[in-house]
Here is the input.
Amino acid sequence: MHISGPAVGRRTLAVAVAATVTCSMSLTGPDLALADGTPTPSVPVPKLNWMPCVQGKRFDCATAKVPLDYANPDGRTIELAVVKRKATGPGRRIGTLFFNPGGPGGPGTVQMPQNYEFFPREVRERFDIVSWDPRGVGNSTAVNCFASPEEAGAWMSSKPAGFPVGEKERKRWIAAFADQANRCMQRDPELLRHVSTADTARDLDQLRQAVGDAQLTYFGISYGSFLGATYANLFPGKVRAMTIDSNIDPQAWTNHASDAGPRLTTFLRMGSDRGASAILDRFLALCGSVTTDHCAFSAGSPKATRDKFDQLMKRLREHPVGPWTYAATVGDAVSGLDIVHPGWTDLAGRLQDLWQGRVPRQPTPLPPPPVPNPYTGDEQGGAVLCSDSPNPRDPGVYHALEEASALHAGDTGRFWTWAAEPCATWPAVAANRYRGPWNKQTAHPVLVVGTTHDPATPYADAQAMTRELADARLLTDHGYGHTALLNPSSCVNDYESRYFIDGALPPIGTTCLPDAPPFSAPEPTGGIATGGGGTARDTHVEVTE
Here is the structure.
């Protein structure tokens, strides 16, 4: 998921950006009635004129033009920014692997190049890897509700970091996002109605045709799993191979396709609050089980470290450390759980700095991508989320939802409840959504990857996705963090490689382990992810009946 980090200490991790807004199902427009999901015949296949993104770099860029509204293909067109890394194995290319980095709102032209080395070596050898900024995002025709970066920064400063604490902050938060919604509606109201997941799935099929592939090979992580499931049910005959990693339960996202007003938010239905709470507890327990040489925040035992965290949260409520308030720190902790190496070690260091009354140092940013670094404000992911997934429309109910979530999920429940509140005042409703069914028979089976200790998309969502799809196989990563791709397991990579290349699924009940547990230095295991060319070690795979 795209998660909003705090205004301070914000990290440029591939999976952490902004996730905030949604609309009620009661406001939905009619679904676009295309029986098999195929765009109307009059929609021309876009032409991709590949050019080096930056001279001397190995990534190529192109721009695709697609209809804003597939129901009106002769109307306005929009642009999609596309990036490609050619297959590295001479004479061994199979085709194109399309990658979506999640979000919603993840700019693929930035995040695919930044995370290219995480793809299994054999996959990089055999496939061109292509990603794109989905409509409404990044370098594509984008939702941008502000006239300048300064205006966007001023708006960001007007709201509390993380989530609101107390009545005054709740009023500021609600007013800030209502103001953002008004600005968005004034700038490009037509675009806001056409950034749904179904729209993006149709864009993806246009891109598939543009590269000349008869069927789609696809890798989607986090929200990219829901995009993959949508594509698989709009274009079931076009699925060659599809891996979806860190999944969203499609029934949770769509609120079971109900037209009634939702009682819970998207993230509460998904269980993100409970998942984050459980993984935060594991983070503190594992931290407390090692010395401060391995985890700076350790207090010598799991219980003492949990108590230390609770004390720090109470202290920050009364005495922030510079811009690091209680809510900003909780938000930072939630997003900091996504990447185990080096994310958990870095998070422990920031918590220890705060414990000692120091403002944490800014992390080292990732190297710049080989494309223009685009504006990716909160409203981009929010526009997509609001188009697809119902949330309560009354801002006044969120405080009660927060308190109810906090009873079982503690601090993380407060964060995840307010992450969806901007949807209460979002002004637009998608003209075209897909709400099911999810069990259309695909040409080939789908590989579902679920991590048992995922702080954003719980493992139960991967199990649900496997049940919902007509033909899917679950591969379990018994590890930590959000997405197996960015928390490497040579075992998972090996199975993914075999599936993408040969179509071979792992045996039913297969369980993998990560290459390195939390708070230990990652060591190469000779698997595909490390470029060693070997297979995963036997200790990294279990098959259960």
In short: The chain is about 35% helix and 10% strand. Residues 2-39, 522-545 have pLDDT under 50 and may be disordered. The first strand starts at residue 51 and ends at 52. The longest helix spans residues 167-187.
